Amino acid sequence: PNPKPQTPNPKTFNLLPRRQSQKFSIMPWLLYLTLFPLLSSRPVKILFDFSNFEPATSEQFEFFFFFFFPDAAGRVSAWLTPKAPAPLPKLKSTLTCKEISLTVAPQFWVEFDADILIFPLYKDSLSLGYLASASICSQAPNGRPIAGAIFVNAARTASTGGGFAQAVRAVEHEILHLLLLTPEAFLASPGTKLAATTSGSGSLVFVSPAVIAHGRNQMNCAEFAGLLAEDGGSVSSRGSHFDKSLAGDELMTAALPAKPLVTRYTMGLFGDSSWFSADFSFAGRSGWGRAAGC
């Protein structure tokens, strides 16, 4: 019989962007290697360090390592392109994130080519109300997040109504938080801003040229001046998510819808930031609030 293939068991995962490997496949390799840096910008590059990921079984580890996180990150990398790719700075052997001390794999103690390093962390409790959550661990001098942690609650991934696909969408949601859609990152990025509404309610609103243009077109409201942020729920929900009443089927609302869409609200915020370009061909067409007026 054929020998059983050896399954690699590294503690880090380097996501190779799908588009990059296919873009110039018909060109001779020499020409490809010569012209690629001049003709193409790469998708956002996400690295994972699984050094702190400790599920109960090796089967669980392999599931999250080979399928769960790569699937979510692969989708996000298809949507976004960094405007000015730069090596991430070297990290120390440990990193403190929200009062949690994380072990950093040795290969990340030097500069490396990526846009963000993510530390998956494992939880397994139905008593926790969330499926996944994220925290920024480190930011570059310009404020751009360069390291973050994503907590995944395995008990909730098994019980979510949408199954595997819905759980993966939740991780996509958290990756987008780490890249931009968290107040400490969002406020640091020129081109987008989080402002107080003029109503005096103290609510926050996401503002960027593309968001305003999409809102006016979507709602048929010439006075639309920005997308209201979630102002209820937990501290982690307020100011980091789109208001459910205005963007109910969007991936970046606090309560994940059954069939979440990445609309021009999300793409617009990323595209208007100083850090990313967005491929609007991936934007979903939402019927939520269409022609609802002001």
In short:
With 294 residues, the protein is an alpha+beta fold. Helix content is 29%, strand content 19%.
Would you mind describing this structure in some detail?
With 294 residues, this protein is α+β, with helices and mostly antiparallel strands. It contains eight helices and twelve strands. It has helices at 18-22, 29-39, 58-79, 154-159, 163-179, 183-186, 209-219, 264-272; strands at residues 12-14, 46-49, 80-82, 94-97, 100-103, 116-123, 132-139, 145-153, 193-196, 204-207, 227-228, 276-278.
| N-end to C-end Cα span | 69 Å
Task: Give the overall silhouette.
Answer: globular
- Uncertain runs with pLDDT below 50, 5 residues or more? 1-39
Strand content: 15-25%
The count of strands amounts to 12
Q: Strand order, biggest sheet?
A: 1-2-6-8-7
Helix content: 25-40%
Look at the structure and give the mean pLDDT.
82
Task: Please describe the biggest sheet, giving its number of strands, its sense, and whether it closes into a barrel.
Answer: 5 strands, mixed
What are the secondary-structure elements, in order, as H or E?
Answer: EHHEHEEEEEEHHHEEHEHE
